[in-house]
Specification:
Number of strands: 5
Helix content: 25-40%
Mean pLDDT: 97
Radius of gyration: 14 Å
Number of helices: 3
Largest sheet: 5 strands, antiparallel
Distance between the termini: 26 Å
Strand order of the largest sheet: 1-2-3-5-4
Order of helices and strands: HEEEHHEE
Shape: globular
Bound molecules: adenosine monophosphate
Structural class: alpha+beta
Length: 120
């Protein structure tokens, strides 16, 4: 799938749409999800143009992948959920109902998260 430069996260990265930022570095931006599903619900995105985890894993540089992984850990720690526990989730494609075609990881926490996956 080709990257769509008009997707909502691309527009956030360009500053065209506001976000509630929690973290930023050279490769990564993180912000609160606009429709939080848990007390802590943060989205972590790379600044590079990657459609999904599949694209990111195949195409991103080692520096981007390292920065992203370290950022996810730091953001969860800073959000205060490293001790209580949290879940990270990345939707890729149709079966996962990926809504926004710019790679992102959800960090969910702040309460017991129940089953790992819902029944269809
Ligand atoms: P996904 O289904 O994994 O693609 O999830 C996309 C997520 O982006 C959803 O949880 C939405 O609530 C969230 N979202 C959509 N638009 C915005 C926005 N403008 N700011 C923050 N989060 C958003």
């Amino acid at each position: 799938m080709a990257y769509d430069r008009n997707n909502i996260f691309a527009r956030i990265l360009r500053g065209e749409i506001p976000c509630k930022k929690v973290y930023e570095d050279a490769h990564v931006l993180a912000f609160h999800d606009i429709r939080p599903q848990t007390p802590v619900h943060v989205l972590v995105i790379p600044k590079g143009e990657y459609v999904s985890l599949d694209d990111f894993a195949a195409q991103a540089s080692d520096a981007e992948i390292v920065a992203f992984t370290r950022a996810v850990g730091k953001i969860a720690r800073d959000a205060g959920v490293a001790d209580s526990g949290y879940r990270i989730l990345a939707n890729h494609g149709r079966d996962a109902n990926q809504e926004v075609p710019h790679f992102h990881v959800h960090i969910f926490g702040g309460r017991s998260l129940g089953r790992m996956i819902g029944r269809e």
